[in-house]
Structures are given as C-alpha cells and as structure tokens.
C-alpha cells in the first residue's frame, strides 16, 4: 500500500517543525527521509507511527485516512512496524521470543524461518545482550517484519553499528524488504546510506520537502545547489554574473566554466567538485592552508581574503603557504539561481 502525506504541519509549542509536507511513499518501495538533525524527518516518522498526534493535514494508507486531527489511533492500532536506532529489543526475552512477540499464537512456528532469513539461525535462545550490535538489529528487523505490517518505519536503524558492518547490513535489509514487498519509510542523515538502500529519497530542509526522486534523479538533476552538494560531495560557492564572467570570492571566472543551463538571475549558487578545479601560482590569489597527498593527486585547502575555505584536488605542484589562483575546467560547474 502507498503511504500518503497530505499537507502535514506540526509544531512543538510555538516552534514549527513541519511546514505543509506532502509526498508519497510508494507501495513496495523503500523511501528515505534524508536531512540534517532538526529538519523534521523524525517528527514525520513519529506522526506516522502514532507516537505523535497529527495537528494539521493527514496521513493516508492505501487511500484511507490513518491519522488526522482528532483521529490519532495509538501505535498498536496502526498496521505499521517500527525499527529504532538501538533496536529496542525486550531485554528479558530471548531473541525468538522477541521475534514472536507480535505474532498470533498460531503463527509462532514462523519464528525459526525468520531467524534463518535474517542470518540468526541457532541464536533464538540467546538474549539481546548476548548478541552483537549487528545481530541485535537483525533481530529487531525480524520482529518488525514478522507480523507483515503494511508499512515499516525505520529511524536511523544502522547508526549504532560500526561502519564496515553497516554497509553489509543495510544491503541485506534492502534485499529482505524488496523480497517481502514492504512499503518502507526510513529516516537517515547519511547520504551514502540513502543512496545505498532507497528506491526514492525525500530530501528535507527546515521542516520542508525540497526534492523527492530516485537516487539517480537527485544525483544527476538536483533541484538546488544544496541538494547537489549533499549527493555529489560538491561545494557551493556564491557568484554574481557580470557580463560574460562570474564574480566569486576565488576570482572572476568565464561563463564557459558553466555546463548545462545558465539561469538568467544575476545572483547564483555554483555547484563545484574539487577535482574539476585546478590552481596556478598567483601572488594575489588564495592562500594555501593545507596540502594532503592522495597518490596521483593532492587535496588542497585554500582560504580566500574573506576567510572562505575551498577544497580542490589537483596534480599541479602546490606547497603550503604559497598563493594560487583557482581555475575551473570548462563546463564543469552547475549554476542555480540563488533563492
């Protein structure tokens, strides 16, 4: 079933957290809510789970209203499963008992199959504290999925797992979710994680959805320089168009450095990648703050006269303390009208 958010607004007292949020988590797909801390993504998840009451707008599942002002059923009355950052397993129950907790008596025989599906065969008799962090998250996933909820909600589910295990765990998780056809909404602040697991990503900023799309769409066609910087590891530089050049804190650049459409606006945000910038010695240029060899190239941190820092990746010989002029490659920069 598709999960629909329609004109959701929410505030904590006088502090607004969400502003007119509308988007869809499509049936059978994994949708990631991506944004920095405080952007509203966990608030939206908690409204869906029933941990918070909807103040304005509605949450709909399969075309039916699941929650709205004056109609906020508790979590146990909603067809949703929950997986939290720390797993939240019941410490006094074995792994098998945890997985079977949400199952009716006649389905308790399915526990062994779920242990096998999440790679915990033979560990059903253990208690949560006897498992590793990754194993605990597998058990939490099995407990949430076993009752076959219409929607699975996941709040930073891999954040407490070490980074090497995290990659394999989220790929196993994606396989299980896609196999089961579960409509999933996952909160994360990690762009790599969103790209790795999601079918679609909803980027949030200051309580608003700024763009929704597939990983490819957001990477290749960002709606703004800020979104592009999230996924491409790029930097955003302010610029002002003056005739046939762009005035930046790094110097004046020709318009030919911009690839794709050039907005008509005079005030622009430039999306630039470190490897598309080079430098040339110039006594009036930026100060070289740090040089970090990476093998064939070096990562160079520069600082402008106004204190703005920029990173480039270059094969040119550069030394700390010298001054350089930054030179962009033709067509290597994307420009957006500044909002």
What does this structure look like?
This protein is an alpha+beta fold. Helices cover 22% and strands 37% of the residues. The protein has helices at residues 41-49, 95-100, 111-117, 133-145, 163-180, 191-197, 215-220, 225-232, and strands spanning 3-12, 15-25, 30-34, 56-61, 64-67, 80-83, 151-155, 183-188, 200-205, 208-213, 235-242, 245-248, 251-254, 267-272, 277-293, 298-303, 309-314, 323-328, 334-337. The radius of gyration is 24 Å and the shape is elongated. The strands form four sheets. The protein has a six-stranded mixed sheet with strand order 6-7-8-3-9-10, with helices on both faces. Strands 13-12-11-14-19 form a five-stranded antiparallel sheet, covered by helices on one side. Strands 2-1-4-5 form a four-stranded antiparallel sheet, covered by helices on one side. The mean pLDDT is 92. It has two domains: 3-79 and 149-229, Rossmann fold (3-Layer(aba) Sandwich); 234-337, OB fold (Dihydrolipoamide Acetyltransferase, E2P). The chain is built from eight helices and 19 strands.
Question: Characteristics of this structure?
Answer:
2 domains; five-stranded antiparallel beta sheet; Rossmann fold; single chain; 37% strand; 19 strands; six-stranded mixed beta sheet; elongated; 339 residues; OB fold (Dihydrolipoamide Acetyltransferase, E2P); alpha+beta; 8 helices
């Amino acid at each position: 079933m598709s999960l629909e958010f329609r004109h959701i607004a929410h505030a904590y007292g006088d502090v607004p957290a969400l502003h007119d949020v509308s988007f869809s988590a499509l049936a059978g797909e994994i949708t990631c809510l991506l944004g920095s801390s405080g952007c509203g993504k966990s608030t939206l998840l908690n409204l869906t789970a029933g941990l918070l009451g909807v103040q304005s707008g509605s949450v709909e599942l399969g075309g039916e209203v699941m929650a709205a002002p004056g109609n906020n059923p508790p979590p146990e009355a909603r067809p949703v499963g929950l997986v939290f950052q720390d797993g939240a397993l019941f410490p006094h129950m074995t792994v098998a008992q945890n997985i079977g907790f949400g199952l009716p008596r006649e389905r308790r025989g399915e526990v062994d199959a779920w242990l096998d599906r999440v790679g915990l065969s033979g560990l059903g008799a253990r208690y949560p504290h006897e498992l590793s962090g990754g194993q605990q998250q597998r058990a939490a996933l099995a407990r949430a999925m076993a009752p076959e909820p219409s929607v699975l909600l996941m709040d930073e589910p891999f954040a407490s797992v070490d980074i090497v295990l995290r990659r394999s765990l989220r790929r196993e998780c994606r396989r299980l979710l896609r196999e089961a056809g579960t409509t999933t909404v996952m909160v994360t602040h990690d762009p790599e994680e969103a790209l790795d697991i999601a079918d679609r990503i909803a980027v949030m900023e200051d309580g608003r959805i700024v763009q929704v799309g597939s990983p490819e769409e957001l990477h290749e066609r960002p709606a703004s320089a800020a979104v592009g910087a999230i996924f491409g590891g790029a930097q955003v530089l302010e610029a002002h168009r003056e005739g046939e050049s762009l005035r930046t804190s790094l110097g004046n650049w020709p318009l030919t450095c911009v690839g794709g459409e050039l907005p008509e606006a005079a005030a622009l945000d430039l999306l630039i990648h470190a490897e598309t910038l080079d430098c040339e010695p110039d006594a009036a240029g930026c100060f070289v703050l740090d040089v970090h060899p990476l093998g064939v190239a070096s990562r160079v941190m520069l600082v402008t006269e106004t204190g703005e820092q920029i990173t480039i990746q270059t094969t040119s010989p550069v030394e700390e303390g010298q001054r350089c002029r930054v030179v962009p490659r033709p067509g290597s920069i994307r420009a957006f009208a500044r909002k």
